[in-house]
Amino acid sequence: MSTPNGQFGFGSPATPEQIAGWDIDVASDGAGLPPGSGTVQQGEEIFARLGAKCHGAMGEGGEGGPPLVGGIGSLNTDAPIKTVGSFWPYAPVLYDYIHRAMPADKPQSLTPDEVYALCAYLLYLNGIVPEDAVMDAQTLPQVVMPNHAGFTSPDPRPDVFNTAAVPPGDLKA
């Protein structure tokens, strides 16, 4: 039961420090990426230690996790394989997901450098960046993913008008 002022009589307002602890999102354009950097080689070492047990030694999928590598060009087939390389449209979102959720048994335990390194390694395994790539807040948003237009193309269904794919001013009422 709430009080006359609409409060429930328990809890307290969140402090700015508490809010900052949850304000960890990274946008598709890279807004929110923290300082730091990581290389493919560093990512390979981290992945071998933390990711291979779930996702396979080379990201091919394992007992506890889906494949992270392969499937490029498979989305329009009868057997699509949704991986980092085939499905994800923006590289900074990879950072966001790894930072929030990985490793599955200790989410949010990786440093920014470790997350950048894992991004570099997974992008390398998918043939998207070269072996000497270094990922950071400037380079990661510049990576063009194979499926970068996959979520913005016009909806092919005849009964749906996809306004997200239409330039402003071109909308028809």
- Which CATH class of the domain at 36-149 applies here? Mainly Alpha
Shape: globular
- The Cα radius of gyration reads 20 Å
Number of strands: 2
Order of strands in the sheet with the most strands?
A: 1-2
CATH-level-2 architecture of the domain at 36-149 = Orthogonal Bundle
In CATH, the topology of the domain at 36-149 is named Cytochrome Bc1 Complex, Chain D, domain 2
The string of secondary-structure elements, in order, is HEHHHE
Approximate strand percentage: under 5%
* Structural class by helix and strand composition: mainly alpha
Largest sheet: 2 strands, antiparallel
Describe this structure in words.
The termini are far apart. The protein is globular, with a radius of gyration of 20 Å. 28% of the residues lie in helices and 3% in strands. The mean pLDDT is 87. It contains four helices and two strands; from the N terminus they run αβαααβ. By secondary structure, the protein is mainly alpha-helical. It has a domain at 36-149: Orthogonal Bundle (Cytochrome Bc1 Complex, Chain D, domain 2), CATH 1.10.760.10.
What's a concise summary of this model?
The protein is built from 4 helices and 2 strands. The mean pLDDT is 87.
Q: How would you summarize the topology of this molecule?
A:
Blueprint: H1 16-22, E1 37-39, H2 40-55, H3 91-101, H4 112-125, E2 134-136
Antiparallel strand pairs: 1-2
Based on the model shown, name its key terms:
single chain; 173 residues; mainly alpha; Cytochrome Bc1 Complex, Chain D, domain 2; 4 helices; 2 strands
